[in-house]
Design goal:
5 helices; 43% helix; globular
């Protein structure tokens, strides 16, 4: 008799966020849906994790330390896999010009901080349908 658990695999979400408190809040919120998660704190480590983890969704901050930012990472991911992965910015930058930049980088969604955990999960669910 085969006792292995069968059924759908957990969806993978990569969170690229440099602020520890925000990263913890995002992870705690995602835990409510039992997502398989990985984290990175900058664009360079985010791209490395993206390549090894193969996420279904990438949640990016725009402003990050080091070389590159979330916009750059979004463009890199799009160049590599096209639209095969959903990408959302989770950022405090909420001006119209910021939204335009996010669209130009080909993000699928733009979530502004601070956010309601319920609304955040609604956005994540919508992206992963």
């Amino acid at each position: 008799m085969n006792l292995e658990k069968t059924g759908p695999t957990r969806q993978k979400v990569l969170v690229v966020e440099d602020h520890e408190e925000t990263r913890r809040l995002i992870l705690a919120t995602l835990k409510l849906r039992d997502f398989d998660t990985e984290t990175a704190i900058d664009a360079v480590s985010g791209f490395v994790k993206f390549n090894s983890f193969k996420p279904d969704l990438v949640l990016l901050d725009i402003m990050m330390p080091g070389v590159g930012d979330g916009l750059d990472l979004c463009r890199q991911i799009r160049e590599k896999v096209g639209d095969a992965v959903k990408i959302a910015f989770v950022t405090a930058k909420g001006e119209n010009s910021d939204l335009v930049e996010g669209r130009r980088a080909n993000a699928d969604a733009y979530i502004t901080k601070p956010f309601s955990p319920i609304k955040f999960l609604e956005n994540v669910d919508w992206l992963l349908v």
